[in-house]
Amino acid sequence: MDAHSRGRADEIDPADQWVLNPQTGNYELRLDHSAGQSPHTPSASRPGTPGTVPPPTRRAQGRGTRDRGTQDRGAQDRLTETIPPVPGQRRRRAAEPGERPGQPSRRKRKPAKSRKKKVLMWTGGTMAFVLVGGAAGAYALYEHFDNNINTIEIAGGSDGGFKKDAAFNILLIGTDKRTGEGNSGYGDKNSPGHADTTILFHVSKDRTNATAMSIPRDLMTDIPECETKQPDGTVKTIPAQSGVRFNTSLGQSGRDPGCTMRTVKEITGLTVDHFMMADFNAVKEMTTAVGGVKVCVERPIDDPKSHLKLPKGESTIMGEQALAFVRTRSSFGNKSDLDRMKIQQQFLSSMIRQMKSDDTLTSPSKLYDLAEAATNALTVDTGIGSISKLKSLAMELTRIDTKNITFLTMPVIDNPAEPTPVTVVPDPAEAPRLFAMMKSDTSLTEVKKKEQDAKNAQADAQAALLKGARSTAREVRVDVYNGSGLTGAAQKTIDWLQNEHGVTRSTNKSNAPEKAAKTTLTYAPNQADQARKLADLMGLPASALRPGTQDAGEREPMTLVLGADFKGAGVPLTGPAKAPEGAQTADKQVCAK
After folding, report:
1. Which of 458, 487, 528, 536 sits 20 to 30 Å CA-CA off 415?
2. Residue 283, exposed/middle/buried by CB under 10 A (0-12, 13-18, 19+)?
3. What's the CA gap between 493 and 578, in Å, rounded?
4. Rg (CA), the chain
5. In this structure, are residues 322 and 287 in contact, taking their beta carbons and an 8 Å threshold?
6. pTM of structure
């Protein structure tokens, strides 16, 4: 196995950070390579590790560790707490010929690295595992954590991990299966579980941004036929089902997460590459491992159904209280599942911030507990079912700044087929637009910025026209045809041009001969100045301009054909698509209402 896959970035082998303390008999973790051994660090034991030191594994035999330098007082002050020995740890190298015990090594010391860099290398992408289920930073515990992970083989799935030079989609599934200690009292304890909380997590090709879209469990949809891999290796085909709730795509009729993945593709058109599934225990154990997650509520909460009790303002929650927070539907908004998803998004955003905080990144005990909880709680597809693959995924996700991780809910409307709607269906206009943005790898945070930039640029252009070019605007001659399919679009554009901007020599020519996909402005060479002014005023992109080859007569107008991309008079076409309402980024705390 090469150095990179073993976590030896920049020639630092994390296993060499575990040093035998001869006075305690335990190995201790060093985050600073200059640190010597602590003569008084107390030992800490965990179940199954009574304090004995196991012999080196075959992989460790015959390999010496690098020099840790001379001991000094400052280095001892940087010693971290003891974590118990595990199989595969290495002993300190033997003294070289002519070297006395305790004597400084003759090997050339590597240049010192910043504490922040060393911590990040050791954690291996802790923040990313908030979204995917945990942290894989403790490389010295590689095999231990690897054995914790539960996997499900998806029929037709890939074992190749993910492509580093392409965008990818991971389906995060929170199941309501009542397994685990203390969970049998939540609802139907005999249920095989549903897709209770589902988030499609899209990661951009350049790893600068991500979109986390919640899918309502009460979304009415069609579940396609899906194949499931049985324990004996055979494949069972689950028949398709129409007009059912989305949450039945998992657990019911023997469906596995692969069926949920196929259902999401059926709805969105986006291929789901991998899944990660967690149960109730994941929320309880992971929030406890990081020392709690901060949440904020606008009023005191006392919910007898979920047993959630919180004072007004900010609180730190963990364990059962954290589970109650993400499960409650009676405490916020209109008490619907859609409002509960907003609460879950706020919770995940806060957990991401906690994971990226120095309080977590610099605490070996928190990292160990988090990795232990996460790998025990995670169930993933075999394509990413190992610590090495999860670590690679985590390292990709750490490149994304929290301000560029957008949480939102799939745009939906009440189910029109129900007299008193209790279910929802995709918004016929807004949902396809969001799916297209995700499919085209559009950054929603960048969209917001560009929207404002476009508005500012348009305002500046209009101000310039009104201030110094109103007389030239009057010289613009244009015939407007409606090929957009929107009733009255041509007349509304004429009214806007004439009343708002003084383009009085504009004429409504009614409908175009046929519908147009794109808005176009056709002009003669001697009308280029007019075309530029009209394009600036209306926000037409360069691709909309159609220059002719012959000059026009003195009073001959340009031709503007409004296409299907026309959204309304005064709405610029140069700006990007509007970001969906309700989107929130992971860097901001929002108080639940």
Report:
1. 487
2. buried
3. 21
4. 30
5. yes
6. 0.61
